[in-house]
Amino acid sequence: MLHIGVQTSDFTVQQEYDALCDANTEDGAIVFFVGRVRDLNEGEAVKQLSLEHYPGMTEKALTQVVEQARERWPLHRVRVIHRVGDLLPADQIVFVGVSSPHRQAAFDGAAFIMDYLKTQAPFWKKERSDQGERWLDARDSDRASQERWQSDSESHS
Amino acid sequence: MTDTFKLKFFARLKDELGTAELDVPTQQVTDTDALKTWLCERFPERQAALQRPLLTAVNHDMVNGTTRLKAGDEVALFPPVTGG
Q1: Whether B21 contacts chain A with CB within 8 A
Q2: CATH-assigned architecture of domain A2-138
Q3: Highest mean pLDDT range out of A33-42, A114-123, A142-151?
């Protein structure tokens, strides 16, 4: 079961957790991650964060990321929600939740989906602070986080 | 009628070029390398924006290296992504 949501509206963690659990007796592990807007980024006080995406490609890219995760771990239910539009500090941005029979697959699967989402899904953040507006640059650390899964798979194969 | 493909821009690149999409004639642009050259000629004052690292998607899939383009394709150019 897979749910992908790209939306301006907020999400409720309890509802997402329930959707991972309801009538699900095979999975002993649920792992979820919530990403939120920070009020301080690279030393600047953030007033607003605007998220742009590529309608049509975004959903496809997220689905492909989840499919790649499922090739590696038994993830039965997966829910990915990413908000777009204008957000404020402390707002929720992203939810990734997975269910699996065992915890290590759930931890790794959720982390993999988050790491790949950050480098593969077409979202862009623009930040507004007292210094004005600026598009955020991609971070090398995000690229490194994704690549660690590639070296993992090589060392295990 | 001239055959074209749709070219879309996103985020900072869209702001810098001042346009969200263009129709590109396939007679002049047959692959992603030629597309870069064509854009540099079309936006000579925006070389800096076009020289920055950019990702390319063809029909909603990211592509690497030289990729052939044909009429009716949807091509997109954008900066490295920053979601999550």
Answers
A1: no
A2: Alpha-Beta Complex (3.90)
A3: A114-123
Residues whose CB falls within 8 Å of the CB of residue A22, separated by 6 or more in sequence, listed in order: none
**Strand pairing category for A123-129 and A92-100:** unpaired
Cβ–Cβ gap A123/B76 under 8 Å: no
Domain that holds residue B74: 4-78
Picking from A33, A37, A52 by the largest number of B CB atoms within 10 A of its own CB, the best residue to mutate is: A52
**Distance of residue A153 Cα from the nearest chain B Cα, in angstroms:** 21
pLDDT, mean of residues A107-129: 97
Q: What would the mean pLDDT of A17-41 be, rounded to a whole number?
A: 96
Do residue A82 and residue B10 have CB atoms under 8 angstroms apart?
A: no
Place of tokens 């990321």: A65
Q: Which residues pair with A81 in a beta bridge?
A: A5, A95
B83: in domain? no
Task: Kindly state the percentage of chain B with pLDDT values over 70.
Answer: 99
